[in-house]
Design brief:
The complex is a heterodimer of chains A (490) and B (500). Chain A is of the alpha+beta class and 490 residues long. Chain A is 41% helix and 20% strand. Chain A has three domains: 294 residues, no CATH class; 120 residues, no CATH class; 58 residues, Arc Repressor Mutant, subunit A (Orthogonal Bundle). Chain A has 16 helices and 16 strands. In chain A, strand 12, helix 4 and strand 13 form a beta-alpha-beta unit. Chain B is α/β, with parallel strands linked by helices. Chain B has a domain of 288 residues: Amidase signature (AS) enzymes (Alpha-Beta Complex), CATH 3.90.1300.10. In chain B, 38% of the residues lie in helices and 13% in strands. In chain B, strand 11 and strand 12 form a beta hairpin. Classes of the chains: A alpha+beta (490), B alpha/beta (500).
Chain lengths: 490, 500
């Protein structure tokens, strides 16, 4: 029997706000434990939360970018459970009335565009972190203590819940990538899965192809990279099919992805599921959002990846592949466009980025944001090629040298400096080139004869010889013309 | 059974501790007395009566003397009268309002050692005025109770009859004001916790509109019902305290961003033509006869002052207590989750995390608090939420609407504050439901979020104070203050003092 998977993703995205969601503490990462805290985020008796407007704005931005309806009136709720990293004994989240609902994003599945539904986006606060002495190297005492760091408690999160529209692990990865790209375009989340600023839980069930009824779903937690999204889902789908084909029953449960073993393991069953006793948060008034504000946010949204892709194709005449690559990261698209605005030929700039620039960055394991080169450096170099000052061939050497020098010196070193330093100026002096051409002809009598005898493709050999002698600096066009003139049968 | 008879003294006492805010203000500004004289008088009084009354959990004498010193400097600097009505005034603060550096226990073992690292908004505003903190007053644990018997520390006695309860949960504040252990006090009121003890101790207790005063720093019992208010010796003092502590606070988004009037401006204004609503549901069988008589007398007094009594109905009154105990306990079950022994307060030993949680909460909370946490946890549980919490919210909406409708016909509503005068210590501890019913007349006011004030309106034959409750529209504390003041001027019940 053929089976299909039904997958829904719950993505937690840490918002890039300066301060926490309900107090003024900094959201800075990596500080000494409990230094980014105040009575509010520590859950002192008597404190009250006050909503950070920036967090609300980020959630609305995200909702608009994902085609959601923004609720004119939404509210917070308390999710009650006990855990040491949860200082109040409840998490302030949204339950019945989330800020955004009924949205979708477009992803490409098997070459076709598919709308993948977003059920809701809601705001909530992050919890702190428990640190167990037994897990600390060389901790004093017998390793019996646990510590709580509340720096992260109260950092604003968005939970983006998808519809169960996803049908394969590959599609789940596409969905995640698209989501991440949008979040990064909006500058509301850095999208770093390894550092936990983007986290993903998945709900998975399988059913025979053609069956309408949904299978029993299993929740998978702790999926913290794109690679694991695919692996964990792959594993879980195969596990479920195996259970069903072995006449077994899938039980509703929460399973944990173990990336070292490459398997999912049962964490808790339905009976042990928490009763979170949600109820409306009485310490916060309902959030009312004026249409005018929504409109303002909408008009200030940056150009989103899908639109940018279309524009790159139509405005710059880029092939789809190039457009996809360039819009995959907003900073990369921005780098590209700046180069084009500075006068670079769109397709040529794209070629340099996807070829040389990406190669160098990949070698250094650097992102475009860390790129030592500025768009202007590339464009200036392209101008040198156009003017004939350097040859296209030698430009690769110049580009790499420019990249290395800019990286090590931490200043922008331009191509003209490198051309001068390395003596790579193109030789366009007719006399000088002619001398070399004459030498080549004089020293390769055999080839000259063969050429004259009709082997015209030998022209490449002569050009190569000239280039070799001039260390690639001779103007290739000029070399070609001179050779043809001199080799032509009188 | 041996009881302590209280003398009822006349108005000729000139001891400073017996004076009101406005009276000592005058003496301080004229420099007839110093802030230190006043503080000394208060602590002398405390030395004499506190052993009997036991109104305080923490007495802050050293801090008070320092604050008096600072206040006096400010008083001396001012040429004439300054703009700080509470400068140099010794006030007692209920022990669920956070005071930076001063232990705040909520009368609970679980917070027996908790010293807040921050100041509540109300006490910050008092500090800005230059008030003097006398001490932190006893209460029912986390505000849960009507007699102050649910304190983990000790039982506070009613200054009028020491074998009786002072009411609760702000029993310590009410008793301290009645006994002259402070000039005035702050309390908090979730279902009657200011008004009921004020009534039972013969003082004035004002619960303002929900949202009028910031709750930042008030340790939460039931967030949607809790409100800070004053317990004072007369109505003018209530208005004076309100002027200082009212108004929007950026730290409390449920505090209303609406302007605060000068509440003293309405005092002395005519109440001729004011419509006094008398809800038929509040004059029920089982009410103490003497209480009923006093309240009816009071209504007559209002008539003599030119007010017009009108019969009104608050039809959902019968559901108020049940509604309250679903909503308040639900919120409490969540609000009290933070007391887990991890971050501050009491922590019991245990073999693992769950064990520490269970032991800490089992040993740290008293019986009534645990009862309410369990009730609330149950009401919020999946499968019961719709039937309890949600239903109670719907009834709450109806109760609110009752008041809106009633206020179409009436400007203020008059009711007894409590169905009986102070009962004996231990009398109702075995029967929580009986205890819950002592708030039957005050609870609806919190559910509706409207303001209410309790003022003395007489005494029972065995000399126990009786309270009259005036209820106003949302954010119309002025009408109830105006009416209460007018009544106070032609009576004088508030000037009677317990003989301790």
């Amino acid at each position: 029997m053929k089976y299909e998977a039904v997958i829904g993703l719950e993505v937690h995205a840490q918002m890039l706000t300066e301060s926490k969601i309900f107090c003024g503490c900094s959201t800075k990462f990596g500080s000494e434990p409990n230094t980014q805290t105040c009575p509010v985020c520590i859950g002192m008796p008597g404190v009250l939360p006050v909503l950070n407007k920036k967090a609300l704005e980020s959630a609305i931005k995200t909702g608009l970018a994902m085609n959601c309806r923004i609720s004119p009136c939404s509210r917070f709720a308390r999710k009650n459970y006990f855990y040491p990293d949860l200082p109040k004994g409840y998490q302030i989240s949204q339950y019945e009335l989330p800020i955004c609902e009924y949205g979708y994003i477009e992803i490409v599945v098997d070459g076709a565009i598919k709308k993948s539904g977003i059920t809701r986006i809601h705001m909530e606060e992050d919890a702190g972190k428990n640190i167990h002495e037994s897990a600390l190297p060389k901790a004093g005492g017998g390793g019996n203590f646990s510590f709580v760091d509340l720096n992260r408690a109260g950092v604003p999160l968005m939970e983006i819940v998808s519809e169960p529209d996803i049908r394969s692990p590959r599609e789940a990865v596409e969905y995640m990538k698209k989501l991440r790209n949008i979040l990064r375009y909006l500058d509301v989340c850095d999208g770093n899965m390894e550092q936990g600023s983007l986290r993903c839980d998945a709900n998975v069930s399988v059913r025979p192809v053609g069956q309408n009824e949904l299978g029993v779903k299993v929740e998978i937690k702790n999926i913290n990279s794109f690679r694991f999204v695919e692996k964990a889902l792959d594993y879980e789908i195969r596990r479920q099919i195996k259970v069903i084909e072995g006449e077994g029953k899938i039980i509703q449960e929460t399973r944990l992805w173990d990336s070292t073993k490459g398997i999912t393991e049962s964490m808790r069953g339905k009976e042990e599921a928490h009763d979170y006793r949600y109820f409306p948060e009485p310490d916060l008034v309902p959030i009312t959002v004026e249409q005018q504000w929504i409109d303002e946010i909408k008009s200030s949204l940056p150009e989103l990846p899908d639109i940018k892709r279309q524009r790159f194709i139509s405005e710059y005449g880029l092939p789809e592949y190039d457009a996809d690559l360039l819009i995959s990261e907003r900073p990369l698209a921005d780098w590209y466009e700046e180069a084009v605005k500075l006068g670079g030929q769109p397709r040529i700039v794209a070629n340099w980025i996807k070829g040389e620039l990406m190669r160098l960055l990949n070698e250094d394991n650097m992102s475009i944001e860390e790129c030592p080169l500025k768009p202007k450096q590339l464009v200036d170099m392209l101008h040198l090629i156009e003017k004939g000052t350097i040859s296209g061939k030698i430009a690769k050497t110049i580009f790499q040298e420019m990249y290395i020098r800019s990286k090590t010196l931490k200043i922008s070193v331009y191509s003209d400096v490198i051309v001068r330093d390395l003596g790579l100026l193109q030789i366009s002096d007719t006399g000088e080139v002619e001398k070399v051409v004459d030498d080549v002809i004089a020293n390769n009598i055999k080839e000259v004869e063969r050429y004259k005898g009709g082997e015209e493709k030998l022209i490449g050999f002569f050009v190569g010889q000239v280039m070799k002698l001039t260390k690639g600096k001779a103007n290739p066009q000029m070399v070609n013309e001179l050779l043809k003139k001199k080799l032509s049968i009188p | 059974m041996e009881v302590v008879r209280c003398r009822c003294l006349e108005e000729d006492i000139l001891d400073l501790y017996n004076l009101t805010i406005s009276e000592v203000r005058d003496l301080l500004d004229k420099k007839e007395i110093s802030a230190k004289d006043l503080v000394n008088s208060i602590y002398q009084r405390i030395d004499v009566v506190e052993e009997k009354v036991k109104a305080f959990i923490t007495i802050t004498k050293d801090k008070a003397l320092k604050m008096a010193n600072d206040a006096q400097k400010k008083i001396n600097l001012a040429e004439t009268q300054n703009n700080l009505p509470l400068l140099g005034i010794p006030l007692a603060i209920k022990d669920n309002i956070c005071t930076k550096g001063v232990r705040t226990t909520c009368a609970s073992k679980i917070l027996y050692n908790f010293v807040p690292p921050y100041e509540s908004t109300v006490t910050s505003r008092l500090i800005d005025q230059g008030y003097i903190l006398v001490g932190k007053t006893n209460m029912d644990e986390f505000g849960m109770g009507s007699s102050t018997e649910n304190s983990a520390f000790h039982v506070t006695k009613n200054p009028w009859w020491l074998d009786r309860i002072p009411g609760g949960s702000s029993g310590g504040s009410a008793a301290a004001v009645a006994a002259g252990e402070c000039i005035a006090a702050l309390g908090s009121d979730t279902g009657g916790s200011i008004r009921q003890p004020a009534a039972l101790c013969g003082v004035v207790g004002l619960k303002p509109t929900y949202g009028r005063i910031s709750r930042y720093g008030l340790v939460a019992f039931a967030s949607s019902l809790d409100q800070i208010g004053s317990i004072t010796k007369d109505v003018r003092d209530a208005a004076i305290v309100m002027n200082t502590i009212s108004g929007h606070d950026a730290c409390d988004s449920t505090s209303a961003p609406i302007p605060v009037p000068d509440f003293t401006a309405v005092l002395g204004k005519d109440i001729n033509g004011m419509r006094i609503g008398i809800p038929k549901e509040y004059f029920i069988e089982g009410m103490d006869e003497e209480v009923e008589m006093s309240v009816k007398e009071a209504i007559k007094k209002f008539e003599l002052l030119g007010a017009i009594p009108v019969d009104i109905s608050l039809p959902h009154t019968g559901y108020a207590v049940a509604t309250y105990y679903v909503l308040a306990t639900s919120e409490a079950s969540s609000n009290l989750a933070r007391y887990d022994g991890v971050k501050y307060g009491f922590r019991a030993k245990g073999k693992d995390l769950m064990d520490i949680y269970m032991n800490t909460r089992a040993q740290g909370f008293g019986a009534e608090v645990k009862r309410r946490i369990m009730l609330g946890t149950y009401a919020l549980s999946s499968g019961y939420y719709e039937a309890y919490y949600k239903k109670a919210q719907q009834v709450r909406t109806l109760i609110k609407k009752d008041f809106e409708d009633a206020f179409q016909k009436a400007d203020v509503i008059v009711t007894p504050t409590s169905p009986t005068a102070a009962f004996k210590i231990g009398e109702k501890t075995a029967d929580p439901l009986q205890m819950y019913l002592s708030d039957i007349f005050t609870i609806s006011v919190n559910l509706a979020g409207v303001p209410g004030i309790s003022i003395p309106c007489g005494f029972t034959s065995n000399n126990l104070p009786i309270g009259l409750q005036l209820i106003g529209k949302h954010f119309d504390e002025e009408s109830i203050l105006k009416a209460a003041y007018a009544y106070e001027q032609v009576t004088g019940w508030h000037r009677r003092k317990p003989g301790l």
